[in-house]
Amino acid sequence: MEIRQAIENYTPFNEQEAADKTLILAFLAANPDAFYRSNRIAHMTASAWVVNPARDKVLMVYHKIYDSWSWTGGHADGDEDLAAVALREVKEETGVRSARLLSDEIFSLESLTVDGHEKNGAYVSSHLHLNVSYLLEADDLDPLTVCEAENSGVRWFTLDDALKASTEPWFVKRIYGKLNEKLRAEMRNRR
User: Fold this and answer.
1) Are 159 and 176 in contact (CB under 8 A)?
2) Is the full-model pTM beyond 0.90?
3) How far, in Å, CA of 188 to CA of 186, rounded?
4) Residue 156: left (phi > 0), alpha (psi -120 to 50), or beta?
5) pLDDT tens-place string over residues 22-55
6) Dist. CA 166–CA 159, nearest whole Å
7) Half-sphere exposure of 156 toward its Cβ, with a 13 Å CA cutoff?
């Protein structure tokens, strides 16, 4: 299914997702370059909430730009298959080879602010990441490797410890907490 259609069909989990869904769809409709970083106002990204088979741990990286433990993810860079982008980023950023999508369906939507920063010796102005997140599973015994260009650590955390490890309060409250809540709800519904 085409990503715009998938976003249109997505049922928001909460008020944040409903507002961000409207924003993302409007931006996509008005900006043919939304999947490219050349749109310096906002562009599409994909992230992954990577859990182990027991669903009691999440894989995170210590992100150099954000100076915090965070989920994995990256820019679409023209690729509208955002599930593939999320999967590719997990493998590149963590070294995990067993990662797989638990579903092709969107797990969450977010509009994320990115503060201005230096990247590859050049200043990048503040902008938005219009983000689609997917739920992935990986073996927590897989070897982990650091992607020197982007992060300085890779580690599994319990779901609750992941929230404590992040130093970004808004992400903890609005994103990571929500992702854990959705994961726990899915686990309850399977029983």
Assistant:
1) no
2) yes
3) 5
4) beta
5) 999 999 999 999 999 999 999 999 999 999 999 9
6) 12
7) 19
Distances (CA, A) of 176 to 28, 59, 62, 116, 136: 25, 12, 15, 22, 14
User: Which residues 6+ apart lie within 8 Å of 22 measured at CB?
Assistant: none
Which tokens is 86 given? Answer: 């999320």
Chain centre to alpha carbon of residue 9: 19
Residues 6 or more apart whose CB falls under 8 angstroms from that of 107 comprise: 49, 133, 134, 135, 179, 182
Which tokens in the block code for residue 27?
């931006």
Contact between 131 and 111 (Cβ < 8 Å) = yes
* Residues lower than pLDDT 50 in the chain: none
Distances (CA, A) of 174 to 13, 40, 107, 141: 12, 24, 14, 29
CB distance 132 to 48 below 8 Å: no
Give the integer Cα–Cα distance in Å for 141 and 35: 34
